[in-house]
Amino acid sequence: MIEQFLSYLSAQGWKPETRPNPPLPQWITDRYHNLPDLWLQFIATVSELFSGDETTWFLCAEDYDTRLDHAWRWNEWEMLSLESAEGDQAWTDEITAFWDRHLPIVLSLENGYSYYAISMEDGSVVYGSEPEFEACKPVASSFEAFLQKVKNGSIVL
Questions:
Q1: Packing angle between helix 37-45 and helix 2-11, nearest 10 degrees?
Q2: 136 and which of 7, 43, 64, 128 could share a cystine (Cβ 3.0–4.6 Å)?
Q3: According to the model, what pLDDT value does residue 68 have?
Q4: Alpha helices in the chain (DSSP H)
Q5: Is the pTM of this model over 0.85?
């Protein structure tokens, strides 16, 4: 499934790179539970995957490693929301609780800031965008369904 997905995106002008990747940082697996097996396989083999214009990209294993220097942090949209909370503790707690339940897997700058994330509650994939990142909507029942919807064109990255 992953190979077909990468072939499809490559034909659409995306730049995939595969190689065995280091495991996810421990703090990611401590924060996020019930990670889908297919996503874990994806993250173990896909080292880079971004659109031809480099405005949309899948987060890969190294992107979650905060010890490395990245142009965009894996949790950039969470950090922007926390900045907006300006120290309001209740709002900060609400933002943090949301992101504890949603692991970002795709970030985009194409039409403003947006993302796709896996819900830790049921494994579905959700879509959110600025200005209120936490107001997201479900787009696929699973990571596998998300890949299928991208391949069949019902989700356009």
A1: 60
A2: 128
A3: 66
A4: 2-11, 26-31, 37-45, 76-85, 89-100, 143-151
A5: yes
